[in-house]
Amino acid sequence: MRERPISTLPNLGPKTADWLAEVGISTEAELRALGPITAWQRLKAWQPEKITVNALYALHGALTNQHWASLTQELRAELRRDAGVE
């Protein structure tokens, strides 16, 4: 199976793909291997003022083929807890 560019994953565009590349995540396989929480933590450490919790939801949705806004409140709470977001 051919790997899709990160910018073509749901919820992610060219800007997010550029940001992910800045923190060492350049492929879909790398993103999947790290998972949304670690990827988000890297982004947050790199640009704490720019990266919001919505990026965490978007990363999870990208890997599960869901729009981030459709994630349940329970799943959002679990993601925030696992990511260490207050």
UniProtKB/TrEMBL annotation:
Domain (TfoX C-terminal) ranges: 5-81
Pfam families: TfoX_C
Protein name per the record: DNA transformation protein
Organism expressing this protein natively: Inquilinus ginsengisoli
